[in-house]
Design brief:
There is one protein chain. This protein is an alpha/beta fold. It folds into 2 domains: 6-17 and 108-242, 3-Layer(aba) Sandwich (Rossmann fold), CATH 3.40.50; 18-104, Putative phosphatase, domain 2 (DNA polymerase, domain 1), CATH 1.10.150.240. 51% of the residues lie in helices and 11% in strands. The protein contains 12 helices and 6 strands. It has helices at 18-32, 34-37, 42-61, 67-81, 88-101, 112-119, 133-142, 155-158, 165-175, 189-199, 209-217, 239-242; strands at residues 6-9, 124-129, 152-154, 182-186, 202-206, 231-233. A 6-stranded parallel β-sheet has the order 3-2-1-4-5-6. Helix 3 (42-61) runs antiparallel to helix 4 (67-81), helix 4 (67-81) crosses helix 5 and helix 9 (165-175) packs across helix 10. The longest helix has 20 residues, at 42-61. The radius of gyration is 19 Å and the shape is globular. The structure holds magnesium ion. Magnesium ion binds at residues 10, 12-14, 186-188.
Length: 243
């Protein structure tokens, strides 16, 4: 193993529990907007939201959709999929409320604080995130993640998003780090893993438990498009064996 000095973490889905926090926020919004929503099937709506959210984020990473459109469209399509034909004003309100409520959720991924406590004395730690600048700080504060990190790199500051190599360049500069002593840790195959790989930085892929389990059964390690990340883990706690 290389003697790493700098750890670069993704935030959403890597440290901040995107799935559980999104669910909690959405449930809160279903309560707040109960009058307008009526008896919508929450699980179905939530599933459709995820589907559209993933699609628009992929476009956003490629700079094919603007932030305001992303915010709105994922909800417009989810409501439409469940045959709830809401007025533009309602969707706009709902999508803005979501950006207000979601970042105040505080759940972290299993082992996040334990890992950060374990690493803090030995490494300089930083964040590289594509998330909206006005919400990422709230998430870190709510989840008590702020004190661990030196450089917090937001794609809106960098001017490009992961997986673009320039954001990794910018991050190293901000952190005063060298490529060969840096490790990228993230849950997104394209943005975090292929992004860091193409930049020339080692990677830890935090894979869904199921994906990691299937790969282990085949004795392979997670492997896609002929690429195997430097390390693959399915829980942050496993990183303690690597670092
Ligand atoms: Mg992520």
């Amino acid at each position: 193993m290389k003697p790493y000095k700098h750890l670069f973490f993704d935030l959403d889905g890597t440290l901040w529990d995107l799935k559980r926090n999104t669910r909690a926020a959405m449930q809160e919004l279903f309560t707040t907007h109960a009058d307008a929503i009526g008896h919508l099937d929450f699980e179905l709506f939530f599933q459709r939201y995820h589907h559209h959210n993933d699609l628009v984020w992929a476009l956003y990473r490629q700079d094919k959709i603007k932030k305001d459109e992303l915010r709105y469209v994922r909800f417009e399509r989810a409501f439409s999929d469940v045959n709830h034909h809401a007025a533009h004003e309602f969707i706009d309100r709902f999508s803005l409320d979501f950006l207000d409520v979601a970042p105040r959720q505080s759940l972290t991924m299993e082992g996040a604080h334990a890992l950060l406590d374990y690493c803090a004395p030995h490494y300089d730690m930083h964040i590289i995130t594509n998330g909206f600048i006005e919400v990422q700080g709230h998430k870190m504060k709510a989840a008590k993640l702020e004190p661990y990190f030196k450089a917090i790199i937001n794609s809106e500051h960098a001017g490009v998003r992961k997986p673009h190599p320039d954001i990794f360049h910018y991050a190293l500069e901000q952190a005063g780090a060298k490529r060969e002593e840096s490790l990228m840790i993230g849950d997104d195959w394209e943005a975090d893993i292929l992004g860091a790989r193409d930049f020339g930085m080692d990677q830890v892929y935090l894979a869904e438990a199921e994906e990691a389990h299937n790969a282990a059964l085949q004795g392979k390690g997670v492997h896609r498009h002929n690429y195997k990340p430097t390390y693959t883990v399915h829980s942050l706690l496993e990183l303690m064996d690597i670092l």
